Amino acid sequence: MVLALGLTTVFAATKTTTIRVEGMKCNQCSSSVAKALKATSGVQDAVISSAKGEAVITYDDEKVTEAKLREVINSTGFKVAE
Ligand SMILES: [Cu+2]
Fold first, then answer.
1. CA 60 to centroid of ligand 1, rounded, Å
2. Interval 19-37: pLDDT, tens
3. Of 73, 68, 71, 65, nearest to 29 (Cα)?
4. pLDDT (tens digit, 9 = 90+) per residue, 33-67?
5. Which domains does the chain have, with CATH numbers?
6. Distance from the CA of 71 to the center of ligand 1, in angstroms?
7. 80 alpha carbon to ligand 1 midpoint, in Å?
8. How far apart are the CA of 27 and the centre of ligand 1, in A?
């Protein structure tokens, strides 16, 4: 979170954030999280690693918030690590 804010640029609405996700065990887990995120308005890309337990999400912060991204991940049945 702190790191993601540090990477914010002043000229672009596009942001990239890394969110830790608990409970993903295999590629099907990560692809279901990726699918849910990519179906969310404002999300441009989502790269999920079940091995690392991480979601790296590129999004337009005028269309979607990081809080909303966390909600979407939680709605897939996996849990965002706080
Ligand atoms: Cu799985």
1. 28
2. 999 999 999 999 999 999 9
3. 73
4. 999 999 999 999 999 999 999 999 999 999 999 99
5. 2-80 (3.30.70.100)
6. 19
7. 16
8. 6
What's the 51 CA to ligand 1 centre distance in angstroms?
Answer: 11
- The amino acid that residue 78 corresponds to is F
Buried b (16+ CB within 10 A) or exposed e, 45-82: ebebebeebbbebebeeeebebeebbebbeebebebee
Give this prediction's pTM.
0.83
Determine the distance separating the centroid of ligand 1 and the alpha carbon of 7, expressed in angstroms. Answer: 31
pLDDT of 82 reads: 78
What is d(CA 51, CA 67) in angstroms, rounded to the nearest whole number? 23
Ligand 1 centroid distance, CA of 10 (Å): 38
